[in-house]
């Protein structure tokens, strides 16, 4: 539960961080857009100032409209003023578009003493969102009116215009941010769904194996009682029953141990010891059993001590698993075990002349319940727990496990565990 909260906190902080970064980039983009806009307005202002300096049809019409002079035209004064507004509006629009500004605007022409006045066809309300760019005209119009004349360009909702200019940055950013959030949420949901599924499966397996332990114990006890009074001819049969009961008990214990490992419960009691005598005894016992199992076995242990921190029970079980696999997956088993110390590490290698493991299967051989198959048929009975258990044990001893195998040439599995250094 704590890890889930940590994941959620990290996710929320990451999303907020991405949002803040995107906001910062957007602010920088808006500032750059404002700078570019001001530069374009400056260029447009220079062109307008230059074009409206001389007397031509447009400035002449503006002069008549602004001075309320209708003597030259046969139209009414209102018509003259309307015509001048629209002609000037089209003229300014052309200059703005040529300089890369395509947004709504308004304008007004007025003198400093407000005696003369002309507005655009569309007039904006004078509020705090209105941005004004005044331009003092030169030439014909100031000389006609004998006063300073100002052409004022007005823009509103300019930030909306800037955002529209940044659509190439803002829209993809929002899309990618949304995609990241959706993907991360989906991954987290899948992760926790799988964890719940694994937990439920492990609980079911643990409950089932616990239920199996009682009848197995009863069978073992009943077998011992029968052996006490059984006729000689029945003792081999009872021996087989006892042997298989012990094997089933070991499998049940192994499943329970794997479940404990996956739930991260403490299952290893590591003590400082010399593992050499334990490994020696294990090899001698397997050597005695070799003729009965019709296999060849040899071992070679380097001289000296093997000082490690180990849980003897689990480490011996792991090595026995490797020896058992070497026996099961070989036609005429030839098995060897070597133990040596090298660079503060204990190396225990088990080699066989078995069928070998393909590169594809080597990628998954240590996964729980995975078994190497030949087509759809498993040649050797098993549960796919052995090597998974071995890997868990080795990891619990802060070691690592290596596998070298070629199909048709056998397999070598190495357990590498750090030695206890002097002074530690």
TrEMBL record:
<dbReference type="InterPro" id="IPR004358">
    <property type="entry name" value="Sig_transdc_His_kin-like_C"/>
</dbReference>
<dbReference type="GO" id="GO:0004721">
    <property type="term" value="F:phosphoprotein phosphatase activity"/>
</dbReference>
<keyword id="KW-0597">Phosphoprotein</keyword>
<keyword id="KW-0812">Transmembrane</keyword>
<protein>
    <recommendedName>
        <fullName>histidine kinase</fullName>
        <ecNumber>2.7.13.3</ecNumber>
    </recommendedName>
</protein>
<dbReference type="InterPro" id="IPR050351">
    <property type="entry name" value="BphY/WalK/GraS-like"/>
</dbReference>
<dbReference type="Pfam" id="PF00512">
    <property type="entry name" value="HisKA"/>
</dbReference>
<dbReference type="InterPro" id="IPR036890">
    <property type="entry name" value="HATPase_C_sf"/>
</dbReference>
<dbReference type="InterPro" id="IPR005467">
    <property type="entry name" value="His_kinase_dom"/>
</dbReference>
<dbReference type="InterPro" id="IPR003594">
    <property type="entry name" value="HATPase_dom"/>
</dbReference>
<keyword id="KW-0902">Two-component regulatory system</keyword>
<dbReference type="GO" id="GO:0016036">
    <property type="term" value="P:cellular response to phosphate starvation"/>
</dbReference>
<feature type="domain" description="Histidine kinase">
    <location>
        <begin position="207"/>
        <end position="421"/>
    </location>
</feature>
<dbReference type="InterPro" id="IPR036097">
    <property type="entry name" value="HisK_dim/P_sf"/>
</dbReference>
<dbReference type="GO" id="GO:0000155">
    <property type="term" value="F:phosphorelay sensor kinase activity"/>
</dbReference>
<dbReference type="Pfam" id="PF02518">
    <property type="entry name" value="HATPase_c"/>
</dbReference>
<dbReference type="GO" id="GO:0005886">
    <property type="term" value="C:plasma membrane"/>
</dbReference>
<keyword id="KW-0418">Kinase</keyword>
<feature type="transmembrane region" description="Helical">
    <location>
        <begin position="169"/>
        <end position="188"/>
    </location>
</feature>
<keyword id="KW-0808">Transferase</keyword>
<keyword id="KW-1133">Transmembrane helix</keyword>
<dbReference type="InterPro" id="IPR003661">
    <property type="entry name" value="HisK_dim/P_dom"/>
</dbReference>
<keyword id="KW-0472">Membrane</keyword>
<feature type="transmembrane region" description="Helical">
    <location>
        <begin position="7"/>
        <end position="26"/>
    </location>
</feature>
């Amino acid at each position: 539960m704590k890890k889930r909260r940590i994941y959620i906190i990290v996710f929320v902080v990451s999303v907020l961080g991405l949002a803040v970064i995107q906001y910062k980039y957007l602010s920088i983009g808006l500032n750059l857009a404002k700078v570019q806009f001001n530069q374009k307005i400056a260029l447009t202002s220079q062109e307008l100032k230059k074009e409206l300096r001389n007397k031509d049809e447009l400035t002449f019409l503006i002069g008549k409209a602004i001075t309320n002079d209708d003597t030259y035209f046969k139209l009414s004064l209102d018509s003259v003023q309307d015509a001048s507004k629209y002609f000037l509006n089209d003229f300014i629009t052309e200059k703005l578009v040529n300089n890369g500004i395509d947004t709504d605007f308004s304008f007004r022409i007025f003198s400093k003493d407000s005696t003369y006045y002309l507005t655009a066809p569309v007039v904006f309300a004078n509020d705090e969102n209105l941005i004004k760019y005044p331009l003092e005209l030169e030439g014909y119009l100031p000389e006609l009116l004998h006063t300073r004349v100002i052409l004022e360009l007005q823009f509103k909702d300019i930030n909306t215009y800037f955002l529209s200019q940044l659509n190439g940055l803002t829209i993809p950013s929002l899309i990618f941010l949304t995609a990241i959030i959706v993907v991360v949420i989906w991954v987290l949901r899948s992760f926790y769904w799988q964890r719940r599924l694994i937990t439920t499966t492990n609980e079911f397996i643990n409950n089932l194996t616990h239920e199996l332990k009682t009848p197995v114990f009863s069978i073992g006890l009943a077998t011992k009682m029968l052996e006490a009074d059984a006729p000689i001819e029945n003792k081999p049969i009872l021996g087989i029953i006892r042997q298989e009961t012990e094997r089933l008990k070991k499998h049940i214990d192994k499943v329970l141990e794997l479940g404990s490992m996956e739930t991260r419960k403490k299952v290893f009691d590591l003590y400082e010891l010399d593992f050499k005598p334990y490994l020696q005894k294990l090899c001698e016992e397997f050597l005695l059993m070799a003729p009965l199992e019709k296999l060849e076995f040899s071992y070679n242990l380097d001289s000296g001590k093997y000082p490690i921190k180990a849980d003897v029970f689990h480490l011996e079980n792991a090595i026995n698993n490797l020896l058992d696999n070497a026996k099961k997956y070989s036609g005429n088993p030839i098995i060897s075990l070597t133990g040596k110390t090298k660079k503060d590490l204990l190396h225990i290698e088990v080699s066989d002349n078995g069928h070998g493991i393909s590169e594809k299967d080597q990628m998954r051989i240590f996964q729980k319940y995975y078994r190497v198959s030949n087509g759809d048929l498993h040649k050797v009975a098993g549960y796919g727990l052995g090597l998974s258990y071995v890997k868990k044990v080795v990891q619990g001893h802060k070691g690592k496990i290596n596998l070298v195998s070629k199909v048709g040439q056998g397999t070598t599995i190495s357990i590498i565990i750090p030695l206890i250094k002097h002074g530690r």
